[in-house]
Amino acid sequence: MDDIYNPNSAPPAPQAPGARDLVARLALGLSIFAFLPPFGIAAVVLGHVAESRITSGNGAVNDRKAARAALWIAYLQLALVGLIAVVGWGLFHNLADGFRRDTMVQRIFRVSDQFKTLDPESAREAEETARTLLNEFIAIEDQVQRKDGSYLCQINELAWTGLEGSTDAERTALAARIADSPYIYEIRDCAPLAEDSRKYSPEPRYTLVAVPRSPRMPENSAIFCTDQSGVIRSSRGETSLDCLNQEKFPPSEPEIPRILK
Questions:
Q1: The dihedral of CA 250, 256, 260, 261: what is its sign?
Q2: In this structure, what are the phi and psi dihedrals at residue 78, rounded to the nearest 5 degrees?
């Protein structure tokens, strides 16, 4: 009978364990270098592939622990790399911002920008700034003439004189705006009173012009000019000598109020 126990019969052989999964082991090996994004991504992909193979293999393949270990190691290293990248980018951004604010660096950038033409919007802003600076120069000249009866004949004198009550920082800022401006400011035909009143001295006068600086300002940019009258005129496609032609170029804005004498 087949069901009778036979003490001489051999015991049944134990079931062989599933074969090791090479994909899981490869994923585990790559996960060690997961701090390098290409290896980390490869470890994650192979780890998931290995888990899927082991699940669908019904015990034919093993190494589920290796596949899961590869996924854990890869994900943790990739998360750490991402965190370091975010923190590092923030530090780099702050460092770069401080670098750009450095006075020496700004000076270098300004020198390099002298050869770059402004875009139309920036050129329009530069024209408005030039008009504003001329108004400020007129006010300074009126202030000096009211006190001394004469005018200043140098742009740097205007900057360092400044408006009454201005601080050293404000005068320094004005000088910097003149130096960095895409316009060249000049005082021409200036006749202050003579120091010796016995000598002949013409009526005090000045001509102040703002000429676009090439190649910073595009072609056909506005030229501004004024004189002791305080009327600002502008022209395009002409020269600074033509700007004060009152018939050809009427005032570009209403006459500014003069400081009362």
A1: negative
A2: -65, -40
**Among 171, 176, 146, CA closest to 160:** 171
What is the per-residue pLDDT across 1-31, written as a single tens digit (0 to 9) for each? 445 555 555 554 444 455 667 888 888 888 8
Residue 258, both tokens: 């003069």
Q: Strand 233-235 and strand 183-191: pairing? A: unpaired
Strand, helix or coil at 15? coil
Three-state DSSP at 17 gives coil
Strand blocks (E) in the chain? 183-191, 205-212, 223-227, 233-235
CB-CB contact of 144 with 151 (8 Å): yes
Centre a 10 Å sphere on the Cβ of residue 170 and count the other Cβ atoms it contains.
12
pTM (2 d.p.): 0.51
Cβ proximity of 146 and 180 under 8 Å: no
Residue showing tokens 């019904």: 58
Is 24:54 a contact under the CB 8 Å cutoff?
yes
Average pLDDT, the chain: 78
Q: Please state the rounded mean pLDDT for residues 151-155.
A: 91
Could you give the maximum distance between any two Cα atoms of the chain, in Å? 153
At residue 138, what is the residue type?
I
Q: Regarding predicted confidence, which is higher, 30 or 197?
A: 30
Distance CA 63, CA 16 (A): 14
**Using 50, 70 and 90 to split pLDDT, how confident is the model at 84?**
very high
pLDDT band, very low/low/confident/very high, at 258 (cuts 50, 70, 90): very low
DSSP annotation string for 213-259: PTTTSPTT--EEEEETT---EEESSS-HHHHT-TTTS-BSSPPPPPP
For position 199, what pLDDT does the model report? 52
